[in-house]
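Per-record layout

source: Amycolatopsis albispora
name: Sulfate transporter
length: 498
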Amino acid sequence: MRTTVDLRTKFPHLRQDFTASLVVFLVAVPLCVGVAVASGVPAELGLITGIVGGIVTGLMRGSSLQVSGPAAGLTVLVFEAVRQFGLPALGVIVLAAGLLQLVMGALKLGRWFRAISVSVVEGMLAGIGLVLIAGQLYTAAGLTAPASGLGKLAGLPGAVADVAGNPTALASIALGAGTIAVLVLWKRMPKRVQAVPGPLAAVGLASVVTLVLGLPVATVEVQGLLGAIQPPGLDSFGELANLSLLGTVLAFALIASAESLFSAAAVDRLHDGPRTEYNKELVAQGAGNTVCGLLGALPMTAVIVRSSANVAAGAKTKASRVLHGVWLLLFAALLPGTLALIPLPALAGLLVHAGWKLIPLRSIVTLWREHRGEALILVVTAVAIVAVNMFEGVLIGLALSVAKTAWEASHLKLEVVDKGAGPVQVHLSGNATFLRLPKILDDLEALPRDRPIELDLSGLHHLDHACRTALENWADRHSAGPEPVKVTEPTALTGAPG
């Protein structure tokens, strides 16, 4: 009796956290397996990443209710890395990315990820979603997907023709479509039924249907937990001299960090508990990825699906996410054979549904109405990821975002007041930078040379060197005529042109 009282005193939220951990565990199992299979690695590696995300990252400080594990957002990047460098190199890539995250967290760079344009992040997720959906449609039909994003999209019409007369492929597609239907309709089921997480219900039903009907579809290949772990060998570290591999490491670190910290901000809006400490969360993510790399597992990020399920289930402390990692460990160690019952088309349907949710259709419509420049950045980033690759697509989006910000920062208004008699008044307001210089000079050169000019710069907030020099030269040339130029200096700046 006294022991029970002591536990309640020491862990006042143990019941809520215990219940939430079970819910998150049931959500995590099919997603961990699905992400691993879609990434082209053994299914057990997804579970290992989930275990590390729960126990290692879960014990660390940062975001108390956020849950980490393998994420659909990195599936495309991992698949490309494994295809290009091989599975043995994956551990080295993830390890190096984790160490880079640790360094960034130690340098307190976590908060700077919040400065990344939301349009770039949403464009990144949309591009990932499109490639993920296209690739998993082939898996749902039992076909091999082309390597590139454009190839996946371009090959879909041919894939449809191949499937049309193939009963086995049609059965596989029907199973994947049924999985998606269950996921979509699950939220409309009674609350008691919804106590079972939708992903688990969808994959579980698909597994039962496959077993009962004896459908000729592919299922998950099982190696066993210890058989799947492949720590990177010393020869694998030699790959770090490859510039292409280093680019992949940087992409892993930056994209995983951005996704985790944006997820943390979203999770903070779901509860009233302690707020996220971004630098500590970045360190926690780095520690988790370092361990995942040493085990040769998938990279991890914070996952909004599991995190929101954790909050909705009533979790109060980080104990819930740690316990969910313990349940994953017990499942992987004691019941690995059950994975062989899961049909691949069901996992493909699960990931098609996840990919669809990565595409921010509502945000695109809203941005187009209110901020068309941001909508353009989102769309271009997504298209670039599909057409080129993940890393370069994100860089293109960031470059566009910086260019747009620079253009807006150089906003300038030039107003000419000519009353027909007396001096012509020219008012400049805003930010005068070299980006607006051609327009400024065109307007000034068009002014009459036989009239006095009053150039009022008092409304300028910023006047860069290029503009100041150009205005000085123009004023000198104009003052050489019959009427000089009178200049009113910016109130916050010194030094007059002319």
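summary: The chain is about 65% helix and 5% strand. Residues 74 and 255 are 8 Å apart (CA to CA).
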